[in-house]
Automatic annotation (TrEMBL):
Protein name: Mitochondrial import receptor protein
Gene name of the record: TOM22_1
Secretion signal span: none
Residues covered by region (Disordered): 1-31, 115-137
GO-annotated biological processes: intracellular protein transport
Subcellular location: Mitochondrion outer membrane
Membrane topology: Single-pass membrane protein
Regions of compositional bias (Low complexity) in chain numbering: 115-131
UniProt organism field: Dissophora globulifera
Example of a GO cellular component annotation carried by this entry: mitochondrial outer membrane
Length: 137
């Protein structure tokens, strides 16, 4: 297990001076990788501190959250797939047909205007051409 040793505050203040406070590690410590404790090692050491019942409870809750997240992501992905394929199969042909219908309406209007201009005498065409007023004005 871990051995705890009490150190007096006076002893710690005597060891460190202002010149040493700028660098916590000396140049010898930087090169020695074996002495540096990683975060994974520290988390693994918590295994001794946390009781097994609490660890199991935390693991179960994390597993439950992961399961719900995975289920939600799968459900959202399937829903997005159904919506996009439905839109492509149902809405896209409808939009294409509406655009085609709008083009036919415009073509019929142009045909009616050209037939009216051809059926009117030449004098009235000049008057009407100069005095064209858009609908609604």
């Amino acid at each position: 297990m871990v051995k705890l040793e009490e150190i007096s505050l006076d002893h710690v203040e005597d060891e460190y001076t202002d010149s040493d406070s700028s660098s916590v590690y000396s140049s010898d410590d930087e090169g020695d990788v074996d002495n540096i404790e990683s975060i994974l090692d520290r988390v693994w050491a918590l295994q001794d501190v946390i009781p097994p019942k609490t660890r199991k409870s935390i693991a179960d809750k994390c597993s439950s959250v992961y399961g719900w997240g995975k289920y939600s992501a799968k459900f959202l992905g399937n829903s997005a797939w159904v919506l996009t394929t439905s839109a492509l199969l149902l809405v896209l042909p409808l939009m294409i047909e509406l655009e085609h219908e709008q083009g036919l309406i415009e073509y019929e209007k142009m045909q009616q205007q050209s037939s009216q201009m051809l059926s009117q005498p030449a004098g009235q065409q000049k008057k009407q051409a100069g005095g064209i007023v858009p609908p609604g004005f």
